[in-house]
Design goal:
3-stranded antiparallel sheet; mainly beta
């Protein structure tokens, strides 16, 4: 995970995990006291289980939010 992030101009809006689509690369995040803490790897949900796309392994931490993954996004996170 990286520094807490809050949606800003051009960053893409965080949406609730309950409405996340299946079978597409997403950026996931968890609520943190200073904003949303984004994960630094793309994830994909298959049959109700979240997987790290790069490692091909199940993710054991439950996300709270999602947005579309854009390559290189991990360099664009901001500390509040």
């Amino acid at each position: 995970m990286s520094a807490p992030d809050k949606t800003g101009p051009g960053m893409g809006q965080w949406l609730p995990i309950q409405i996340a689509p299946d079978d597409c690369d997403l950026e996931l995040g968890r609520l943190h006291k200073t904003g949303i803490l984004p994960w630094t790897f793309p994830c994909r949900r298959k049959s109700g289980v979240w997987f790290n796309v790069w490692a091909g392994e199940a993710v054991l931490i439950s996300p709270s939010y999602w947005r579309i993954w854009r390559s290189g996004r991990q360099q664009q996170t901001h500390i509040l």
